[in-house]
Specification:
heterodimer; A: 319 residues; alpha+beta; five-stranded antiparallel beta sheet; 9 helices; 36% helix; B: 97 residues; mainly alpha; 4 helices; elongated
Amino acid sequence: MESYKERIGRTPKNTATGKTMSAARWKLILTILTVALLIVPTGYMLTFAYYAFGTKSTTLMDTASNVLYLTEPNTALKELEFDMDFSLFSMDLSFDQYKQIGNEHYPVRHYDLHFVLDDLVDKEMTSNLDRTPPKYPTETNQWLVHPAQGVPEFNSAQEWQVLAGLPDETVVEAYVSFNDLYKVIDIRKELRGTDVLWAAIYTGTEDEMLSTDGYVVSPIGYPVQPDQTYWSPFRDSMSHEETFLQLLKEIEPYEELAAEVSSHKNLKLKERIAFIEENGFAAYGAVITGPKQEVEALKDSELIRHMKLGEVKLWNWTK
Amino acid sequence: MELDKVKLKSFQAFGWFSVITGIVALALLNISMLSGYDLAIISQLSLWISVILISGLIALFNRQSRSLGFWGLGIAGYLGFFVAVIFILGWIIVPFP
């Protein structure tokens, strides 16, 4: 025991070496800690650099929002409702979708999109809609029907009957399918008393709702009413038709993402863009809104072949 | 002799203070980012950087504490670079005012 005590306190030189060792060890530990703590902030900077110079965050946001204008009938988005958050190598985007029913806009859906880099890995959608379109579109269950198509799954006569039973103090949204292809300007003239909100454009695939390679497609189209919302791609648009075509072209490189955001399973934009460029714009259906009586009065219109009732709200019509 | 020792100890204290403050700032920054909540550090980062910078610069005046000074300055420089990058790129990637 004595010899051990002697040994540990043998020379002052050993104490100094011990202190140096301790300081060196601390320096090593703190160096490792410093390097470890640099990883997350560096990752953040790389994430920001990726969304600024790689796949731009604004491109992802524009694709996600624009595709809704073209694939979800009667859609409007508001800038201030957009929420964008960044975390390590990922981006969260959330926003509300609105529908015009009568004269007012109502929030109908909330979207939460989670991107890892440019890959949409999670999409959550909460809906306030009373009447939701089919979750899995088929050739026959869609609400806008091309004149060449047979009888749809919904019963048009029943829909007119439901409309007739609604109180007069209501405004409604209706999906009307025409008996032929028409120009939007003619549709607006014909459907007086209502607002034509969205026109479904024939893109060569709607006769059977199948693309040339046999995939089920859904209606695409554009908002008809002038839209001064700052966020809208149709703001200050001289021709909604041309803006529609331009947006389709802009979305095309991101078609996979666009299809994931939209409720459509397939967009098949290449062949549809080519068809529109060759044949122009002709509508086979539209989404309209107006007082219940005005929409009901269209039952005898020669234009309309089928009608599917959408949302119903209490009177807010001021025109 | 004693005065030299006190001087050395003071410079080393500034050096260690600079490094430890820098590491604490980095740790808080990490916590803020990983938790997803803005901690007070984010708004006070310039104050933290100044403290680290000043104590690091003082530590540079003595040869024995110089490495600690450079270490602290390195962390302060990194934090400054981080703030600049996040501010500029943040302005590019978020299209809202």
